Amino acid sequence: MYLSRHSLLLLCALFLFPSFSQGQTLIETLKRELAGFKGTAGLYALNLQTGEEIAINADTLFPTASIIKVPILVGVFDKIEQGELTYNQPLMYRDSLKYGGSGLMQFFQDSTETDLSVLVSLMITYSDNTTSLWCQALAGGGVAINALMENLGLVHTRVNSRTPGREANREQFGWGQTTPREMAQLLVKIRKGEVVSPKASERMYRLMTNIYYDENALSAIPPYIQTASKQGMVNASRSELVMVNAPGGDYVFYIATKDNEDQRWEEDNESYVLKRTVSRLLWEAWQ
């Protein structure tokens, strides 16, 4: 039997890449992908256009790593709304604020003049740790931010680091903790203008559309499609929050992992492959 080049390529794609077109539904394919992960994986996805919902370990607690910077962002904008801060408020960087890991401000010279808009932009775009801890303090600390999460109906999403009474949680989950369902719900609320105020939600959403770390879930979405996102990565936990402003209607997902066996920082890390696969499957199914 003769097969054209196009037919051969199609057959290769079907065998090499997961697809829900092989007699399985989207949810069945996603369950299979998460079940094969060496560690614990969870997913919550919601199509805002159709209401279709996918929940796999969606109410399991996971470390947030840097995704806790979204609740910190909410805390900062709440202070702006209350008149205690201003978006372009002048600030001065001091070496005493330096914190390692990701980000750029740790390399600034002592006494460098900056402002709050730069802090929140670096915190979200480049996941800057120094500005994030600075913003956490400006927002009133973890206690104030956690109260905001509680008021939004998010009972599991919490800042742990530098938050009195949450030392045991920090030992287990690190800087913050959440569930896939709750963090996705927070982004949906921001998208709908329901967090702090419509104006504040719009500004927060704009900040989340400018992300440097686009190699994983975002790489499976065409570059001309707007996304709002945040990534969180430590050795044993790699997670990603994404809202896709797709032509066929917005959808959101949160893919979380913990207890990862593969803790390498290479492109083919198992969690990175999983995030790209989940993102691609959702895009293909819902677009």
From TrEMBL:
Keywords: Hydrolase, Signal. GO terms for molecular function: beta-lactamase activity. It holds the Pfam family Beta-lactamase2. Its EC number is 3.5.2.6. Residues 42-257 form the Beta-lactamase class A catalytic domain. InterPro entries: Beta-lactam/transpept-like, Beta-lactam_cat, Beta-lactam_class-A. SUPFAM superfamilies: beta-lactamase/transpeptidase-like (SSF56601). It comes from the Bacteria. Residues 1-23 form the signal peptide. It catalyses: a beta-lactam + H2O = a substituted beta-amino acid. Gene3D superfamilies: DD-peptidase/beta-lactamase superfamily. It is an enzyme of class 3 (hydrolase). This is beta-lactamase. It comes from Lunatimonas lonarensis.
